[in-house]
Amino acid sequence: VRHCLTALLWFCMAMSCACAQRAQPSVAPAAAANAEFLKAADEVLAEMSKLLSLPVREPLKRSVRTKEEIRAYLVRNMHEDRDDAKIHADVRTLELLGLLPKGYPLEQKLLDLLTQQIAGVYDPKGREFFIAASTEPAEQRVIMAHELTHALEDR
């Protein structure tokens, strides 16, 4: 019985140490994940450059963004490229054709959809590539290859 109590005591101490370590926030994993992302992006860019015979002409900004940051990017770009008259004419045409109910918040719905569905973006204006933080690690290299191809083609 004494051996069982001793083993139980050691087990409880080990579990409490493990829980205490897990509860403490750590900056190192985030920094390591970012370093891994940057390394992977550089590797994929070099591979795609070789595969497509397109040289890397200048450094490319790379980052991982949250859904909120992606939404802010989309809103900023919508306002930069906005042509209110054309948007109004397009929406009115869709309403007249019966493809859109009158008063449907099309712009808001598109923004919501894009925010949720975007996995990666290459922004030619800012010469920046980013992927969504919610992207599964197994999918990141495929998304990188796609977006970095756009970057290489952007001459």
Strand and helix layout:
Elements: H1 2-23, H2 28-52, E1 61-65, H3 67-80, H4 84-96, H5 106-117, E2 120-123, E3 128-132, H6 137-153
Parallel strand pairs: 1-3
Antiparallel strand pairs: 2-3
Percentage of helical residues? 55-70%
Mean pLDDT: 83
Q: Runs with pLDDT <50, length 5+?
A: 1-27
**Spatial strand order of the main sheet:** 1-3-2
Supply the number of helical segments.
6
Could you spell the SSE succession in H and E letters? Answer: HHEHHHEEH
Evaluate the radius of gyration. 24 Å
Q: What characteristic shape results from the CA principal axes?
A: elongated
Largest sheet: 3 strands, mixed
Task: Tally the beta strands.
Answer: 3
Strand content: 5-15%
Kindly name the structural category: mainly alpha
Termini Cα gap:
76 Å
| Assembly level | single chain
What does this structure look like?
This protein has 155 residues and is mainly alpha-helical. Helix content is 66%, strand content 9%. The chain is built from 6 helices and 3 strands; from the N terminus they run ααβαααββα. It has a 3-stranded mixed beta sheet. The radius of gyration is 24 Å and the shape is elongated. Residues 1-27 have low confidence and may be disordered.
Please supply descriptive tags for the structure shown above.
elongated; single chain; 155 residues; three-stranded mixed beta sheet; mainly alpha; 6 helices
Quickly describe the structure.
This protein has 155 residues and is mainly alpha-helical. 66% of the residues lie in helices and 9% in strands.
